[in-house]
Amino acid sequence: MTRIWLVVAGVVGLTNLSLAADSKNNIATAALRKCGRAYQRLRAVSLRTTMVMELAESGRTRRSETQATLLAERPNRFALKFDADEARGELRSDGVKLITYRAEGNEYLQAPVPADFGGKSLLRQPLRLSPGTSLVLNLLRSEDPTLFLNADLNGAELLKSETIAGRRTQVIALKYPWEKIEKGLEGKTGKALRGHVAEMKLWIDERDGLVRRVQVDLASAVKAFSPQRAPTRFMMTDSFSEVRVDPKLEAKAFDFAPPSGAKLVKSFSRATPRALVGSPAPTFKLNDTSGRGASLSDFKGKTVLVNLWATA
Amino acid sequence: MRELPALESLSKAFARKDLIVLGITRDDAKTARATLQRTGVTFRNLIDENEVAFRKLQVRGIPRSFIIDKAGVVRADLPGAMSEAEFRAELRKVGIQ
User: Fold this and answer.
1) How many domains does chain A have?
2) A→B interface, C-beta within 8 Å
3) Taking CB atoms and an 8 Å cut-off, how many pairs form between chains A and B?
């Protein structure tokens, strides 16, 4: 009996000791495998994504948030609808054509579906895939998502467990080759990024193995292609909610029906500024320097002279 | 930012004429408060760190000013730096003098 306990104690001791890098890597690899299998099993998925960009640079912090709905079916059909004010539009693939529709200007682009969905930055072109949505699309596209995750995402490490939106997740840190995020890596930016790895974190649901959040740290990448800039923080985070596996799909779920008057163009025309003079002032609510909220409509009945400025 | 003293003077001069001078800055609150204190500004300023109002007003270059009338309609779009006299001339057009 004593002997058995000694053995048990020994095993427990070993387990504790091995909470070192090795076992963390094993847990991470197991979580990634489970994740790969989960995506292999499903036929389609729908979700809401909240994409947050945070950039801290030369003492200023900027944050922007965009929301979108994604419906995707293996291997390469999807519809991604953005519902942000200034970036309304959609990206769609019916398996053959890739459509980018921009509500502002009522125009759309059409191209063959690429061999791979590169995750593009949402910064300047809000109608591009975020790292998180492109990861999900690539997992659905891949014949073997397990292989996709394990073969390419090396050096995985379990950071911690975390509950997000009521789901228990394992947070896995990965080194993600830029080639995987920015497909094609063209031009100057591409050249600078080639060979670089991005620090990526995945929140993998402990129960169903699906990805609930994706975060990519772009700070080192920015330094790589423009050394004069040195952001202290540059994060793009996709948080998924309302994740549904194999939702019922309408017959034409992935077909693009151009809204009336929509034009097929070779490239989007530059946004023509709407005439502000003569129109009602836009609505927004901001806090003043003492934290009190205000919007322009608070001043109806008075003339307002608005001045937009910055210190630097 | 160089316009702040002119605007401060206008806000005092026209306080009884139902004119509100309102600043909107893309600074963070701390930087904004320091600048406002340094320049002696007392009129109200909103913090627009995430550039929500900047986007909605299609502001790409600063400084930029707008005059909004009593009904909430934009009456003037004034890009670039303006002197106090120039501001007064624009305000006269909407009946503030």
Assistant:
1) 1
2) 59-64, 86, 273-274, 276-284, 286-289, 291, 294, 296-297, 299-312
3) 168
Strand order in the sheet with A44-57: A157-164, A167-177, A197-205, A211-217, A233-245, A44-57, A60-73, A77-82, A89-94, A97-102, A107-112, A263-264
> How many angstroms away from the CA of B54 is the closest CA of chain A?
8
- What is d(CA A204, CA A168) in angstroms, rounded to the nearest whole number? 8
Nearest-CA neighbor of B45 among A63, A306, A301?
A306
Q: Kindly indicate the confidence band of residue A123, based on its pLDDT and cuts at 50, 70 and 90.
A: very low
Residue B59 has pLDDT above 70, yes or no: yes
Provide the 8-state DSSP code for A126.
Answer: T
Separation of first and last alpha carbons in chain A: 75
Whether residue A286 and residue B53 make contact (CB cut-off 8 A), yes or no, is yes
Per DSSP bridges, beta strands B19-25 and B44-47 are parallel
| Residues of chain A with C-beta less than 8 angstroms from the C-beta of B54 | 308
Is there a domain that residue B70 lies in?
yes
| CATH number, residue A256 | 2.50.20.10
CATH code, domain with B12: 3.40.30.10
Q: Residue A296's closest CA among A304, B31, B80? A: A304
The helix/strand/coil state of A296 is helix
Asked whether the beta carbons of A116 and A109 are under 8 A apart, the reply is no
* Residue-level pLDDT at A87: 60
Q: A104 is in which domain, residue-wise? A: 24-264
Under 8 Å between Cβ of B58 and B65: no
Q: Burial-class residue A273 by CB neighbours within 10 Å (0-12, 13-18, 19+).
A: exposed
Residue A37: closest CA among A118, A138, A148: A148
Beta strands (DSSP E) in chain A are: 44-57, 60-73, 77-82, 89-94, 97-102, 107-112, 157-164, 167-177, 197-205, 211-217, 233-245, 263-264, 285-288, 293-295, 303-309
pLDDT tens readout for residues A183-227:
555 566 566 666 777 788 999 999 999 999 999 888 877 777 666
Minimum distance, in Å, between the CA of residue A131 and any CA atom of chain B: 21
**Residue A184 Ramachandran class (φ > 0 left, ψ -120 to 50 alpha, else beta):** left
The answer to whether residue B97 sits within a structural domain is: no
**Domain encompassing residue B24:** 4-92
Residue A271 within any structural domain of the chain:
no
pLDDT at residue number B30: 93
